[in-house]
Write a structure and sequence with these properties.
Helix content: 10-25%
Distance between the termini: 5 Å
Structural class: alpha+beta
Number of helices: 4
Shape: globular
Largest sheet: 8 strands, mixed, barrel
Number of domains: 2
Order of helices and strands: EEHEEHEEEEEEHEEEHEEE
CATH topology of the largest domain: Diaminopimelate Epimerase, Chain A, domain 1
Strand content: over 45%
Length: about 270
């Protein structure tokens, strides 16, 4: 099988977007092989498909059926580039994305020949709950469509403990994908570990957009007011904005950079 792909770098969260058609039933196996290729250095894989929803310009299907903000910004940037967006110009892209209901809108600004910055509306949380940790503490869990995120103080779990805990916890919680966010007590930084059940992959991501959205949603819920702040991660900083009204998060968005690394073709 010959595959055309694009490698993008959104906040260090290396993303491979497969632009060749791949049957949905084969995507998990293809993604696993791409993730295992050391030459790609991928943290996640998405597949670009034709959109079915009215108004959407393309569909992004993630390897585990989850929603991913960084991959969505990457797909929008690639679409804008192919549409001839000039350096210094902005464009709106309407996406259909796995794990999200309806059309997801992303504003893309082209900053350089290969660099972009995107702002994207994130799916709203489906629920909040507390999960017990092995040390007896509890940590907030934020559920989104297709993925949930557990916000854990960085001094509560060692990285090896997090890796051992995550697959079983993902199954127990019934999530398609689960992020464990080792977070500074002041919330200013985090190190995200993401497990995807469909591929059985655990990755220490350099940047996690949905994890950043979870941080913003949790902060708004706990404070009872809107929140906007930056979260430093190993690959860079992502900004989040959570609008809180009448006891709930009404809108959620993240903003971050993305860079096209290269396009290529692979034989699998």
């Amino acid at each position: 099988m010959k595959l055309n792909y694009a490698k993008l770098d959104p906040s260090g969260n290396i993303t491979i977007l497969v632009t060749s058609p791949v049957p949905r039933e084969a995507q998990g196996a293809v993604a696993s092989r791409l993730m295992a290729d050391p030459g790609l250095g991928a943290e996640q894989v998405g597949f670009l498909e034709a959109a079915a929803l009215p108004g959407a310009q393309l569909r992004l299907q993630m390897m585990g059926g989850e929603f991913c903000g960084n991959a969505s910004i990457s797909a929008a940037a690639l679409h804008a580039l192919d549409g001839g967006l000039a350096v210094g110009a902005r464009a709106d892209c309407a996406l259909e994305v796995s794990g999200a209901d309806g059309v997801v809108r992303c504003e893309i600004e082209r900053e350089s020949e290969s660099g972009f910055r995107g702002t994207i509306g994130m799916p709203l949380p489906e629920g909040f709950e507390e999960v017990a940790l092995p040390n007896g503490e509890s940590a907030p869990l934020v559920r989104f469509p297709g993925i949930a995120h557990l916000i854990v103080p960085e001094d509560s779990l060692a990285p090896a403990e997090a890796e051992a805990l995550l697959p079983g916890l993902c199954a127990k919680l019934g999530a398609d994908a689960l992020g464990l966010l080792l977070t500074a007590r002041d919330g200013a930084s985090m190190r995200p570990l993401v497990y995807v059940r469909a591929t059985g992959s655990s990755v220490w991501e350099h940047g996690c957009a949905s994890g950043t959205a979870a941080q913003g949603a949790c902060a708004a819920m706990r404070s009872g007011r809107s929140a906007a702040f930056a979260v430093a991660q190993p690959g860079g900083t992502i900004r989040v904005r959570a609008e809180f009204e009448a006891g709930r998060v009404r809108a959620l968005s993240i903003r971050g950079p993305v860079r096209l690394v290269r396009r290529g073709t692979l034989e699998l």
